[in-house]
Amino acid sequence: MGVSSPGPLVRVAGLRKSYGSRLVLDNLSFNVAAGEIVGLLGPNGAGKTTTLSILATLRDADAGEVAIAGHDARREPRAVRRRLGLAPQSIAIYPSLSAYLNVELFARIHGLSAAAARSAAAAALDIVGLSERAHDPASTLSGGMRRRINLACAMAHRPQILLLDEPTVGVDPQSRERILQILRELAESGIAIIYSTHYMEEVERLCDRALLIDRGRLLAEGPVAELVARAGSRHRMELALRGHAPADLCAGMTGVERVDFSADGDRLILMLADLGKVAEVLERARAAGFPAIEFNLHSPNLSDAFMTLTGRALRDYDEIQG
Amino acid sequence: MIRTALLVFRNEFRLLLRDRMSLFMLFMAPIVIITVAGFSLGNMFGAPAGARKYLIPLVDRDHGAIARAIVHGMSHDSRLRLVSAGDVAAARAILAENDDAPIAIVIPAGTTAAFSAGREANIVVYVDPVKQVEAYALEARLTDVSRAIGMAARDRAQARLERMRAEAGTKAGNLSAQIRAAKSEIAEYQARAASARAALQKKLAAEIAAQLAQIDLQARAALSAALRAHQAEIAAKIADKQAAMATMVAYLKHLQASRGAFELWLGQLKAAAGAHAGEIPSPPAWPAPPNPRVIAELNAPITLPSISNDIAVPAPKVRIDMPSVEMPKFPLLALDLKRLAPGPAIALPGVIGWRNRSLTPGYAEVNSFDQYVPGFGITFLLIDILWGVSVGLIDERDWGTLQRLQVSGAPMSGLLSGKLTARFLIGFVQMTVLLGVGRVLFGISLGRSPAMLLLPTAAIAFSAAAFGLIIAVIAGARDAVLPLGSVGAMTMSAVGGCWWPLNFEPAWMRSAAQWIPTTWTMRAYNDLMIRGLPPAHALKPTLITFGLGLAFLCLGMLGAARSLD
User: Fold this and answer.
1) Chain B residues with CB-CB distance to A147 below 8 A
2) For an interface test with B, which of A109, A118, A162 has the most B Cβ atoms less than 10 Å from its Cβ?
3) In a domain, B491, yes or no
4) Partner of A8 at 20 to 30 A CA spacing, among A17, A31, A137, B132?
């Protein structure tokens, strides 16, 4: 993919980066349009943070091109920075300052006047739901609140592009929901968002498109549903029954295939062609005198797509990396 | 860049105002340490610090004037309290039991007698070795007292000598007046004698001249008569000679005529002889006649020169030298009257004492806080600025705010400028406040121009901020700042003379100290505050401090561009 097409706000072409002998990015290319949320998904060490750092002009690529709103990141870093908002993985705020002063400071550094920065800070804190705690020192707020301040600092100056690096790490569920909601609203207002994470669920819920990255290479790119479809369409069902059910319990059922018993032998593992077969399976078991005590369903997702593409699970990879 | 610098500058103050520990370290900690150091180490500057009083046991075995003088001399110093001790053991016990008793004084028997007789008199001072520093200060005080006693005794002897000298002077004055009168009379007599001698000499010369004139006339007359007689006799003899001469002349003329006749005869003879003419022998040669002019001269009359009777005879000069008269010498006249006058005062050899005078217009006795307020102020300024700059930068990097600031469009130069300027100003205010507190609480000197102290203050704050940047670059991590920064600040403080005077240090350390800014800042402070020198003396050390700070800044900026960007 080249950088010649005029439409996208973010154009990345042939990005290459090494740290010493270790190749971190290998010919990475993608585009992001205005109002689009693109998930950058990959295990730790895949090159997500390096990609964001190059987009944010904090690092130079060894090769390749990056254009933000038509400005080359290497030659016009100031123009690029004016259009960017970055929420780094660490909570990059001053702990002793209040939420308001943090946001106001970065807004002013971005070039807003004093009055505009005050107004922008108040608005950003309102968006992230911290108006009531705006003047409390950041160090006294919860981790989730600080994450939201982190986000407010990135968006207060109304950037065209938001770069978010693991913005929900360590955040409680309520704050996570709040953040995801805010991002959706921002995207609807026309802001392009690049969302780096290794939480595939967030990408599935939030992103219009996902970029699957591993070892600096783009494995796959496209709408989330398309990527999931690459992992297949069958649903996995684990079924715990009262009593010891026979192995051929579901024999003859169309669209239902027994795969195996679980390792402890208590659970039956089935693959279903569609979710409509769940009721049939449960009814068959009840009729056979082995009513279901519990069952779990696992539908195909990005993690499965990743496994399909790499032969490894995302979480397995994380554990290896960790 | 300026906008960024200003925003970062403001933010630094916001952060500082919310950091109570930093505020404590900026102002309270240095005041506490300065107070402790100033009161504890004040003796290093020669004066017992504060209101502390010292107890000094005195063992008096002399019971004389010396002991009384020592007690009297020390009673003027309110910091000293003398207590009588029966013997050395009792004095030792007092030293051992009292922290405020660093020395004991023992005045041996016979001290006053030896002193009065001009012999050496030694007073024994027992020193508690643990309290050496205080002892040094008190020994100096004892020396002052001893010198005062010696000077008092000497002054009394000097007064006695002065009285004797005054009496001798009066007597010499009277004698001198008498001699002057005698000298005057002799001079008058000498003048009269000289006048009489001159008149006599003149009279004798006139009489001799008259007699000589008479002799001259008589001599002239006798000479003229004798001359005329001789002249007549000569004239007669000349006339006789002239007559004889005329005869001779006539003969000669006749002879000449005869020669011609002979020549003619001879010719005729030869002709007559014919062939035999050759046999005729030649006649003898005729002598050549005298020159006619000679013959004419012989005929000339002889005239005698006339002789005048008036022969000038030079008159003899008459000079009369009167024999000199040796005037008798009066023995007293040989005396030098000036030496009889009272000479310079007779001074007894003085007592050599050491009295401190400041080399400069400043005070010789230094308020220890004049050293410790700027000294420990600089130490804390270094610590606080090093910590503020280094940890501030590293924290920002670790927090991610540095990255966020950069992404926000803030250039690194603006970030560093804002941070360093803020820390510079904080250090400047800190030092200024400490100097003010030192003035109010401890009465430190601010020199002739207190405003000039702001120059070295600004210079050291600048250097410290720049050095903090270097520490941030070298340390790399927060945990490394404390050891590196502390060692840097402490070393610069110690070597630079912040904790003790620079001249306490060995030569090599003093040489090394020339390369650190604290040395020059302390020199500027000492020049202005302790030495009381004119403000211009602070310019050179201030400029050097700024120069070193500039070098630090260049190094720090280069390193920061690599490690922080």
Assistant:
1) none
2) A109
3) yes
4) A17
Please, what CATH class does the domain formed by A34-54+77-229 belong to? alpha beta
Residue B231: inside a domain, yes or no? no
Q: Do A94 and B399 touch (CB under 8 A)?
A: yes
B258 belongs to a structural domain: no
pLDDT, tens only, B126-162: 888 777 777 777 877 788 788 888 888 888 888 888 8
ipTM > 0.90 for the complex: no
Chain A environment of B403 (Cβ under 8 Å): 58, 86, 88, 92
Residue B11: list chain A partners with CB under 8 A. Answer: 94, 97, 105
Residue B92 domain-assigned?
A: no
Greater confidence, B267 or B457?
Answer: B457
Coil vs helix vs strand at A211: strand
- The answer to whether B339 touches B170, Cβ cutoff 8 Å, is no
- B410–chain A Cβ distance below 8 A for any pair: yes
The mean of the pLDDT values for chain B is 81
Query: For residue A38, which amino acid is it?
Result: V
* Cα B284 from Cα B264, distance rounded (Å): 15
Q: For helices B478-495 and B392-399, what crossing angle results, to 10°?
A: 170
Cβ contact A61:A16 at 8 Å? yes
Spatial distance between the Cα atoms of A200 and A181, rounded to a whole number of angstroms: 17
CA distance A12 to A3: 7
Expressed as residue numbers, the domain containing B535 is 2-40+367-563
Q: Delimit the domains of chain A by residue range.
A: 34-54+77-229, 235-298
Task: Determine the CATH number of domain A235-298.
Answer: 3.30.70.100
Buried b (16+ CB within 10 A) or exposed e, B444-460: bbbbeeeebbbbbbbbb
pLDDT in tens, A204-229: 888 989 998 888 898 888 998 888 88
Contact pairs from chain A to chain B, CB under 8 Å: 62
Q: How do residues B299-311 score in pLDDT, each as one tens digit?
A: 777 676 666 656 6
Q: Which residues contact B172 (CB under 8 A, 6 or more apart)?
A: B340, B341, B342
**Chain B residues with beta carbon closer than 8 angstroms to that of A124:** none
CB contact B14 to A (< 8 Å): yes
Distance, in Å, from the CA atom of B328 to the CA atom of B330, rounded to the nearest integer, reads: 7
